[in-house]
Design a protein that fits this description.
The structure is a homodimer. In chain A, about 35% of the residues lie in helices and about 15% in strands. By secondary structure, chain A is an alpha/beta fold. Chain A folds into two domains: about 140 residues, Aspartate Aminotransferase, domain 1 (Alpha-Beta Complex); about 250 residues, Type I PLP-dependent aspartate aminotransferase-like (Major domain) (Aspartate Aminotransferase, domain 2), CATH 3.40.640.10. The first copy, chain A, has a seven-stranded mixed beta sheet with strand order 2-8-7-6-5-3-4, with helices on both faces. In chain A, a hairpin with a 5-residue loop joins β11 and β12. In chain A, about 60% of the residues are buried.
């Protein structure tokens, strides 16, 4: 008789967004005005013209025998020209990496979720609290999280991120984590770690043989100088870090699906090269990103592509400003939104995340995301995103101001 | 200190295609005529015009705010119209499945390789011998294969597929397998199981609570009436089988990346729905296939799309016939190629796979795949594929005939 992976049975389910959907639908019919959604983390601006052109051209190439492309069997399952374009993008940020340290994939979520495959089940995992749920759930699936007690998993090391520490995690006391997930700029809090703050973690990881799994999917939103775009800007990171990046939020690729993961070739543990293990995994479980999408990604990294995608980023940044200013004016303590597309706002004293969610849904017809859904330290907060339409965002903020 | 997944360290590496590449390169400079490659399983015909049109249109839609698509958040992470098109395709083959039993993905290899995630590490796994290496390697990664002794993994149940049994596996004596991989039409042997032969396995699986992981990536090549295109044509399969299908060989999508996996909703083990477990896995580790690729896949299933892709299939079938006839005329025992794009040929008495490979490389300048690379029972055989250019295929066969 087949036995299923029992770790899956311990998962509490994806209650957060289901519950948001349920409450929103239940209210929809009695809503006195159109509902505006600032909860979801999805982009809304169209792809840049140069990206669309590249996709059209690549699609047409696939229709001719001479220019048709089958399996991508090049290094790291990605075409040279895309790896070189990503390498050049790093170089512009002052980071030197080899092109064959770049693994192109269909999403940062996929890679963040699957990287656990190359690690043993008995590593100690640290996550921030609040946290992007994928880090937690995928480690639970792999058997590294222990049991779920209704709020926390028994085997995870939680790193509280609160207003007191500026939402940047401090080194843990007690158990030393082997795998450390850091997302900066952060989802959900919008906080971004400085170079000095990241150096503390790099030194810790190098000292203990830990690995930092660094998610920089939102690096395009960084505006402040002392915030690194890449963990590899920090000295010592090449011997302790893997970096996950995505075209999703940088170039509006949430419907296009392209991301990449960088594993330095000198990164070893127990004599095994993590680069070689990940390469081996992909050889058996992945065949690369579609040719047309690789061309799209390449186009987004040309001078023209970067200029065009920068306009979308600027558009979202203005939304972030509108939300920050508006919620501050409404008397909320507001964080994030400066180096990130997420705004993290603390509700009125004593009001829980879900109460605030309900209030804003019912009185302002605005959907937010309750911070408690991201972990216990998110209680009392809500997350808003800057990815909406500019007019709708302004209107939503005015409504919230009127309610609070 | 981080511990790596030690199962990866047991893998012998992807020696087969590396070794083929090495020998081919070493010979290349001294080759007296252009080398023809009939070893690789990749398509060469361009995408159908209607598919290219759909990709161009979808690419342009992504450039306008009104028609831009972000995350695909529909059922099973695939658009309704694609799930319905796939469902209709099954219906044409006489198989009724629900649209939300279809999980669209980036590749059958990905899904075959990752489906193990939802099963416990202590299931007994059966594979055919010879076998598509992905089934073996991914189970080794998950810790289900035991140790590699240079030819076989100690914990796997091998099902010999030989000329004597028509390359269709017989029920094992001894250990009862929990997970049973069946690929029909088969890679590498090109054999296809009849409905009666599959019924034996379905009954066995239902009797023992086993699951059949049925890979029908090559179903479009079936020409004989009593060979099922889907395991779900066999009575009882819905309570014991998961099916993997792909647009790769059906519509030339090896560079486009689209496939799907069907899990019946009534498929349960230990009280857990496998459909629910796979859905849960995908929620945390996948964000769906690009919009433009979903549109491409949909177009390939329209009447026009099916008529156009059928031309490519017919083209490859003619190649298969040329190879079959030519190798038979050369005195080899030839199998497959009737319901599959693969031809499995037995070399002269006493000649090993690699010896035959070397002979054909050096004397005929034709690259084949040594059967021994697919498992011990493949010794003495070579695999040839029908996916090449028609003229080159004819020429290669003439050269082989001249040598043997």
């Amino acid at each position: 008789m087949v036995k299923v992976n029992e770790n899956y049975l311990k998962l509490p389910g994806s209650y957060l967004f289901q519950e948001i959907g349920r409450r929103t639908r239940a209210f929809q019919d009695q809503a006195p005005m159109p509902i505006i959604r600032l909860g979801i983390g999805d982009v809304t601006r169209p792809l840049a013209p140069v990206v669309v052109e590249a996709m059209v051209k690549a699609s047409q190439e696939m229709g001719h025998k001479e220019t048709f492309r089958g399996y991508c069997e090049e290094t790291c399952t990605a075409y040279d020209w895309l790896r070189y374009a990503i390498q050049a993008d790093y170089k512009r940020q002052g980071v030197e990496i080899a092109d064959d340290e770049i693994f192109v994939s269909d999403g940062a979520k996929s890679d963040c979720g699957m990287i656990g495959d190359i690690f043993s089940a008995d590593n100690v995992v640290a996550v921030c609290d609040p946290v992007y749920p994928v880090y937690v759930d995928t480690n639970a699936m792999d058997g590294r999280a222990g049991e779920y007690d209704g709020q926390r998993w028994t085997n995870l090391v939680y790193l509280p991120c609160t207003a007191e520490n500026g939402f940047v995690p401090e080194l843990p006391e007690g158990r030393v984590p082997d795998l450390i997930y850091i997302c900066s700029p952060n989802n959900p809090t919008g906080a971004a770690a400085t170079k000095d703050q990241l150096k503390v973690w790099v030194d810790f990881a190098n000292q203990h043989g830990s690995i930092i799994l660094f998610d920089s999917a939102y690096e395009a939103f960084i505006t402040e100088e002392n915030v690194p775009h890449s963990i590899f800007e920090v000295e010592g990171a090449r011997t302790c870090a893997i970096e996950f990046r995505s075209f999703s939020k940088t170039a509006g690729f949430t419907g296009n699906r392209c991301a990449y993961t960088v594993i330095p070739k000198e990164l070893e543990r127990g004599g095994a090269s993590l680069h070689a293990l990940w390469n081996r995994r992909r050889a058996s479980k992945f065949n690369g990103v579609p040719y047309v999408i690789q061309r799209a990604a390449e186009a987004s990294l040309t001078d023209e592509g970067r200029a065009q995608t920068a306009q979308a980023i600027a558009y979202y940044r203005r939304n972030a400003e509108v939300i920050r200013d508006g919620l501050s004016a409404a008397g909320l303590a507001v964080y994030g939104g400066v180096n990130a597309p997420y705004i993290w706002a603390r509700g009125p004293e004593g009001m829980g995340s879900w109460d605030l969610f309900d209030l804003l849904l019912k009185k302002a017809c605005v959907v937010t995301t309750p911070g408690a859904g991201f972990g216990p330290s998110g209680e009392g907060y809500i997350r808003l995103t800057a990815f909406g339409d500019a007019d709708a965002t302004r209107e939503a903020v005015e409504r919230i101001k009127a309610v609070l």
